[in-house]
Specification:
With 196 residues, the chain is of the alpha/beta class. Helices cover 28% and strands 32% of the residues. Strand 10 and strand 11 (154-160) form a beta hairpin. The two termini are 18 Å apart. The protein binds glutamine.
């Protein structure tokens, strides 16, 4: 099983390490042609406006929408979550627009720009280590979206079928549980596409 990490900007090597800890092969993705060779993809953190612009420049918007339409899983972390959303508060562009949720960028303000905590995540047995860096929050979700985790009453992890999004950086810890969860989603989508 091969899981790609979109490598236009952001924390790529750390995600590859986590994918391998979760027992899959990690592939650095720089060109749209590479998408044909992978079973799922991680959209890393960074700066969502920059990532979105690079995605447009390199043809990744259409290519990743087609990838998603095949039922292949996508996992957005932090800026990657913003890239997945179909609504972004304020004067901010929508990028892939695949996940039915409204996102607020830089939602923790200056006081809490960066911090580490432990969260309960639905579907994961042990509490998860999470690093928040100028993180977004999910302010509202559509009927197809399942909330997986909250921090102080605000949504920080959610799933819509084959789409997974978290506000934080699970790759900056030694805890691979969220990547393991995503690897299981990829495994299940691969198994069902082989059968059918
Ligand atoms: N603040 C960034 C944005 O709004 C996201 C930060 C991150 O990915 N760590 O795009």
């Amino acid at each position: 099983m091969k899981i790609g990490v979109l490598a236009l900007q952001g924390a790529v090597a750390e995600h590859i390490r986590m994918v391998e800890m979760a027992g899959a092969e990690g592939v650095i993705i720089k060109k749209v042609e590479q998408l044909a060779d992978i079973d799922g993809i991680i959209l890393p953190g960074g700066e969502s406006t920059t990532i979105g612009k690079l995605m447009r420049d390199y043809g990744f918007i259409e290519a990743l929408r087609a990838f998603s339409a095949q039922g292949k899983p996508l996992f957005g972390t932090c800026a990657g979550l913003i890239v997945l959303a179909n609504q972004v508060e304020g004067d901010n562009p929508v990028h892939l627009g695949l996940m039915d949720m409204t996102v607020q960028r830089n939602a923790f303000g200056r006081q809490r720009e960066s911090f580490e905590t432990t969260l309960d995540v639905k579907g994961i047995s042990e509490p998860v280590r999470a690093v928040f860096i100028r993180a977004p929050l999910i302010k509202a979700v559509g009927p197809e979206v399942e909330v997986l985790s909250e921090y102080k009453g605000e949504i920080v992890a959610a799933r819509q079928g084959h789409l997974l999004a978290v506000s934080y950086h699970p790759e900056l810890t030694d805890d691979a549980q969220v990547h393991q969860y995503f690897a299981t989603m990829v495994q299940q989508s691969k198994a069902s596409s082989v059968q059918g």
